[in-house]
Amino acid sequence: MDTQTNKTQPRLLIVDDEETIRTILRRVMEKQGFTCYLAANGEEALEVLNKHPVDIVLTDVDMPGMGGVELVQLIRAQYSADPMVMTGHINEFSYEQMIQTGAVDFILKPMAPGEVVLRVRRVLRERQLVRGLKETHQELKASYLDTINRLVTAAEYRDENTGDHITRMSTYSAFLAEKMNMDGAWVDQIRYGAAMHDIGKIGIPDNILMKPTKLSGNECNVIQTHPVIGARILANSKSNVLRTGQQIAISHHEKWDGTGYPQGLSGERIPLAGRIVCIADVFDALSTKRPYKDPYPPDVIHSIIKEEREKHFDPGLVDIVLDNFDDFMGIRNSKGGELANWGESFNWSERDAETAPFTI
């Protein structure tokens, strides 16, 4: 059914119920440097596609068993090959109809071998161009996200745990967005935007940001300027990710009951992205060591999150966190080390409300 295979050659599957046509097309295309596979109908074509990577499928329309139209639709749904169709039934099928089924080209029989070569080579060039554009896009996306990551790291370079914190924040936030059944593009915007939530801390002095004891009133006022600083840094971008990052930077310290900062927004007036990152940030603060506190035990974290429902947090997001609490703890433990071993020494009554992580 197939000829010898060369991985550097383009691969063509020829599907036609007439053996003569299959044989002629194979000879012509092999002379042009193609590796050719043959099939007499749609069912045989699928067997080939399941065994061999193929670049282009050139198929007849009218065949016994599975015809070309159904084959093209299946190729589009399940395989990466580009389907071309050929037919002598000009009155039954139009070019427009074939293109709408997913075919990339439509050739009328009888056809000159030279025309087939030209048409197949055109489809191959377009395929290679699209592949190249996708690779370039991926490289640009990787460079773009790397730049964002470096910007965020530069903003928080003073904290040796920054990398783990950023990774956890992105993972928590994307997890919440997925649980809300948001589309993939929005989940990605949250994933990358969440990493920029504290970018404004680049403007906060070390002696305040890293202070291990209670902050003074003036120091609290200074640290509470970081959302505004972050929003200014990220302002006026054409990038969806950076716009989401700006929205998160300015709103992730707002509270559901309106007592947050810097704008005192409440309820659904707070952008959803900000509400998501808010609860993710508090969860991470509660479960990790900070200059002013040791990590809290899981049961205490659970209690705090529950207590802050409709106060600090969007009640719907609280429900998601508590329903998936083990998953959140799993993210915490897998991205930055295990939680501390408190034994019997931890006493919740010792918590100082002034240093609780969700108050600054």
Automatic annotation (TrEMBL):
InterPro entries to which the protein is assigned, alphabetical: CheY-like_superfamily, Cyclic_di-GMP/3'3'-cGAMP_PDE, HD/PDEase_dom, HD_GYP_dom, Sig_transdc_resp-reg_receiver
Keywords: Phosphoprotein
Residues the record lists as 4-aspartylphosphate modifications: D60
PANTHER family documented for this protein: CYCLIC DI-GMP PHOSPHODIESTERASE TM_0186 (PTHR45228:SF1), CYCLIC DI-GMP PHOSPHODIESTERASE TM_0186-RELATED (PTHR45228)
Superkingdom to which the source organism belongs: Bacteria
Keyword Phosphoprotein set for record: yes
All copies of domain Response regulatory, residue ranges: 11-124
Ranges for domain HD-GYP: 140-337
Organism: Desulfoluna limicola
SUPFAM superfamilies given in the database record: CheY-like, HD-domain/PDEase-like
CDD domains: HDc, REC_YesN-like
Signal peptide per UniProt: none
Protein name (database record): Two-component system response regulator
Xref: Pfam families: HD_5, Response_reg
